[in-house]
Specification:
The model has no long low-confidence stretch (mean pLDDT 84). Helix 3 (66-73) crosses helix 5 and helix 5 (100-123) packs antiparallel against helix 6. The chain has a single domain (10-196), classed as Arp2/3 complex 21 kDa subunit ARPC3 (Orthogonal Bundle), CATH 1.10.1760.20. The protein has a two-stranded antiparallel sheet with strand order 1-2. With 201 residues, the protein is mainly α. It is 69% helix and 3% strand. The radius of gyration is 16 Å and the shape is globular.
Length: 201
């Protein structure tokens, strides 16, 4: 779901950049010093997971893991995802510098939203832990796909078909992300629960 250079219109680029800056500022302000290491580790996981692209028609699909980042980091998902996307743009030309703000917002905003939606359910106990974590991973990718498709659609009618193809291509990814997030969260809850101890704020 990396949008490349020269695709989006100026208003979409500026709006995405402004929202990404605001989200990153909030994330940095709410990130304690002792949480920097988990933020960096999850940024690296996001970086690696989204490097593997599977071509599907005019678009490509890849793992995102923004649901896992969101439920573990909260607002800190913004700077974590921003750093990963910046490195991908500079090192591998995935996405671009002008579209960095839009790409960051499209990935990080659903992560933060899922943090607030599902973290209270996950904190209540083990009964529905896997189901809630699955829903977190699924919904995060769904919302990211919708935002990315919307960014393309807002930039011109010529991108409507690509937007539709992007949504369709990520349907199986949503399920895969849900399963990965479910297993990862339940595993961490058993072996390293302190990694999931970020406060809800």
């Amino acid at each position: 779901m990396h949008i490349s250079e020269g695709v989006l219109s100026a208003p979409v680029l500026l709006g995405g950049a402004a929202l990404a800056i605001a989200g990153t500022a909030i994330g940095l302000k709410r990130t304690d010093y002792d949480r920097i290491m988990p933020v960096a580790i999850l940024s690296a996981a996001f970086f690696i997971a989204s490097l593997v692209h599977v071509p599907i028609g005019p678009v490509s699909a890849h793992l995102v893991l923004n649901g896992l980042l969101g439920v573990m980091l909260g607002w800190a998902a913004f700077p974590s995802i921003l750093v990963a996307l910046l490195l991908q743009a500079v090192l591998f030309q995935y996405g671009g510098l002008t579209s960095l703000g839009v790409n960051t917002f499209n990935m990080a905003a659903p992560a933060v939203l899922c943090y607030f939606l599902f973290r209270p359910l996950l904190a209540k106990g083990t009964t529905f832990r896997f189901a809630a974590a699955f829903a977190c991973g699924f919904v995060a990718v769904l919302l990211s796909a919708v935002l990315t498709a919307g960014s393309l659609a807002l930039s011109g009618d010529a991108f409507n078909s690509a937007a539709g193809a992007l949504l369709a291509a990520h349907l199986p990814i949503m399920v895969i992300e849900g399963v990965i997030t479910g297993f990862a969260y339940t595993f961490l809850a058993k072996v390293k629960p302190e990694a999931l101890a970020a406060p809800i704020n």
